[in-house]
Amino acid sequence: MKEYTPIKEGKVREVYDIGDSLIITATDRISAFDVILKNDVTEKGKVLTQMSRFWFDFTENTVANHMVSTDVKDMPEFFRNEKYEGRSMMCKKLTMFPIECIVRGYITGSGWASYQKNGTVCGIALPEGLQESEKLPEPIYTPSTKADLGEHDENISYERSVEILEKEFPGRGHYYANVLREYTLSLYKKCADYAWEKGIIIADTKFEFGIDEDGNIRIGDEMLTPDSSRFWPREGYEAGKGQPSFDKQYVRDWLKANPDSDYRLPDDVIGKTVDKYKEAYKLLTGEDL
């Protein structure tokens, strides 16, 4: 049996090159504030992979994606075991764009903090009088840089995204920046409408895109998971305050309240976190993990 070692390890994922394709495995690691915590969150990786699988299937006629299979039977023998089952995705190889495509449908988090200071979010002027967690008149596109492990992503303007893309793809920067913005907004609107019907508000999320060997733009990495999105329960939603969530905001809040934790979570916080992830998966897909 041929053995494989990761060609890349991120905060959460491990990437394996199997020749024609990649296998991306979501571990149970969790990060907050760009730091990998010292605990694993049991089964979290399976939730991330299966949630992405669901959304890739749901949006395949809107924007192409990189998914080939999540069945380890389709993968080399090395991956056909409990360690990889349920948490691994075989994918097309993509040349990834050097920006993260963020869309905000509600004002919260760093966006709310920025708005309180000067009435803007990532340089975009918003109407006066918005309340915390309020739905925006229209979703806004606020790209960011992709930071290396241990560094922080930086919010950038649309114009800056054009410059970054132009440097990587001379003569194509404006075109790619516009397509990525359009894809991001169309995906968000389609998925947010669906999630609302299932009882979840998608407040914001991020997408990552790349180009396949034929020059087609595809969505890659993960999609609309509790790691890359803010999910709020529709029931009880009320603007003017912070919202309970189905994502890792619970972990962030606990860390803020416990600054001496040294990025180590107690068992009850781990248990509540994975329960929230699983509840979101069940609401959105109608299936138990």
Protein described:
The protein is an alpha+beta fold and 289 residues long. The protein contains six helices and 16 strands. The strands form four sheets. Strands 8, 9, 12, 13, 14, 15 and 16 form a seven-stranded antiparallel β-sheet that branches. A five-stranded antiparallel β-sheet has the order 1-2-3-7-6. A two-stranded antiparallel ribbon has the order 4-5. Strand 2 and strand 3 form a beta hairpin. The chain starts with 7 loop residues before the first strand and ends with a helix. The mean pLDDT is 93.
Topology summary:
Blueprint (H helix, E strand, L loop, with lengths): L7 E2 L3 E5 L3 E6 L2 E4 L2 E6 L3 H16 L7 E3 L18 E5 L2 E2 L2 E8 L2 H10 L1 E2 L2 E2 L9 E7 L2 E2 L12 H11 L4 H25 L2 E12 L5 E4 L8 E5 L15 H9 L9 H19 L4
Helix pairs in contact: 1-6, 3-4
Features:
alpha+beta, 5-stranded antiparallel beta sheet, globular, 289 residues
How many distinct helices? Answer: 6
Mean pLDDT: 93
> What percent of residues are in strands?
25-35%
What gap, in angstroms, lies between the N and C termini?
30 Å
Number of strands: 16
Rg measurement, Å: 19 Å
Question: Structural class from helices and strands?
Answer: alpha+beta
Taking the sheet with the most strands, its summary is: 7 strands, antiparallel
Fraction of helical residues: 25-40%
Brief characterization of the structure:
By secondary structure, the chain is of the alpha+beta class. It is built from 6 helices and 16 strands. The strands form 4 sheets. Strands 8, 9, 12, 13, 14, 15 and 16 form a 7-stranded antiparallel sheet that branches. Strands 1-2-3-7-6 form a 5-stranded antiparallel sheet. A two-stranded antiparallel sheet has the order 4-5.
